[in-house]
Structures are given as C-alpha cells and as structure tokens.
Amino acid sequence: MNILLRSWRTGDAAAIAAACNDPTTRRYLPLLPAPYTEADALDFIERGVNERAVVDGNSGEVLGCAGFVPRGHGVASVGYWVAPEARGRGVASTALERLGTELFEERFQRLYLEIEAENIASQRVAAAAGYVREGVARGAGKRPDGSRYDMVVWARLAGDPPGPSPRALPDLPGGRLTDGVVTLRPIGPGDATPTYNMRILPEVSGRSVVATPMDPAVVARQCAESGSRWLAGQRAEMTIRRSDDGTYLGEIALFYFEPVLREAMIGYSLVPEARGHGYATRAARLVTGWGFEIGMARMVAGTAPDNVASQRVLEAAGYHREAVQLQRLPGPGGERIDNVAFAKVRPAAT
Q1: What is the pTM of this model?
Q2: Is the pLDDT of residue 48 over 90?
Q3: What domains, with CATH codes, occur in the chain?
C-alpha cells in the first residue's frame, strides 16, 4: 500500500470525526470528546501543528493519524490512530516508520510510545516499526474520571536498526500448536471465565507458585494483558483445548526466566474432567518442542513432592528428575515446601 503523511485539511473533518467515534479508538483514547463532532475535528486540525494525516497515496483516502509531542532535549512522544476500515493492513507501522524517519532527520534522537497493556495490537505495531519495549510507566494513563492506569513504554533511538524489533518469544507458527488431539492457542480476553473457574479450584490454587487472585476482574485483566507479557519476552501463556470441538481443558505457559542461560520453565493446570487422559503430557510435549525450536537449551519444570500425577506427566513428556530443592516453593498456608526439579535438554543436532 502506498502510504503518505501530509498536513491535515479542513475537508478531512468528517473522516476524523468518524474515526474518533469508533469504539476501539475511544477505548484506547479515553480523553477524546464524546461524541466527537466535526467541530471537534476542525479544532484539532487548527491546533494540530505536529499531527500528520495518514492517507492512501493513490486514492487520497484518510487512513489515520500520526503525530508527536516534543518532550525536550531531542525527545518526543509519538502516537497514532487508524480508521477501522484501514486496520490490519500495515498502515500504523508504516506511518510510525515514516514519521520516525522525518523526526530523526530533524532534531530528535529518541521517540517513545506509551500503550495500555491490554492494547496488544498497538504493541505489535510498535514492535513492527522497530520500537523496543522498555518497561511500564505506572499511572501514566488517565481516564475521564481522573483515575490512572499503567502504560507500557516502547522506544526507538535514532541509531536503531529498522524494524521489526527482535523478540525473545515469537508468535506460535500459524497462531497455534497442535498434535491433532490438543490445540494450544494464546490466552486472550475471551478465556477469562473458564480460566478463573479453574484457577480458584483448591487443588489448582494450592499448587500455584503465584497466589491465585479470587477476583474474576483481576483474572480477566491478566488474560487481556497476557499478549503484552508475551511481546515482552517474559512468558507465553496458552489455553489447552481439545482439537475436535475446542473444549477448554486448561492452561500451560512457558516462563522465560533465564534468558542468559537460554532456559525456560513450563507450568500447567487442567480442569478436573480433563485429567487422566494424557492431555497435560501432550501439551507439555508441544510447548517443550516449541521452546527448543525457538532456541531454548534447557526446559525445566517442578512439582511438589506429593504431586505424583504431575511428575508422571513430566516423565511422559521426556523430562528427567534432577533434584529435590529444599523449601523452594511457597505453600498454600504460607509455609515453604520442597520442589522436585525436572529438566529436558535440547536434542543434539544430527
């Protein structure tokens, strides 16, 4: 697609108003006037000296907006929005790249985006445009009621190579892993209810290294933000579903906690009716194989000493028992419990 950046014109007001009344645009730009009128658009055009219209270079159609705010000393925050009908076509990443080239040719040395953690699509845009995730700006976002929320910071320097930026945890091939019996897909907002219902089971929450929140809203947010942690290279969280009918069976995750050693850990849980059918073993094999494919040297896992079922899962998935680590795990009542450590190493190349 031939994408151009140009100055806004008064004739663009209707297109701006339509895009700024879109529910997704409003969801992630909560301080926009509601409803957004053409008068608001004309005011935006008049004062938006640092804003660019993103247009189709062939038809002249307005596709979105890309702009910046100088923050002093060669630094600028950048932002964008894309009209609903133009999404999913590489418009946003191309616009960010073009804007970045323009700003770096001027006086700027650092550009950054602040993106809500649930806005996975926008974080993907940032990565595609060569921005690198730096961290979380606590309370950087503001809602109309004055409440604050965290924002993920993505930045690009003048000397950085062109995008996309490298990722420690790439996407699953084709968006899933499957052996024909179970299928693993990234956890998302639609998985909140079954995930919460499973996590609060005593036998699941009692064996979780991280305490399971008893608030469904917290689990819903965790599911919605899971893609952000994946893009950050921290963990890849997936649902386990039966391949034939999509029935929810549980969840499994790869935790990339030792990048220097190229070592990752897996953890999994199943709903009661899915246990005893070999689903966990199949899921563990799939995630472990994927881990080796993306460059892990070792995959590890651990269980409480009395969790014999999980130890059998790991053994069936090709893991070997290495050691008992004394009082490594937090227990459900605040006590410490031992961890039975398992590991599987990457097969030697043949």
Answers
A1: 0.93
A2: no
A3: 3-157 (3.40.630.30), 173-345 (3.40.630.30)
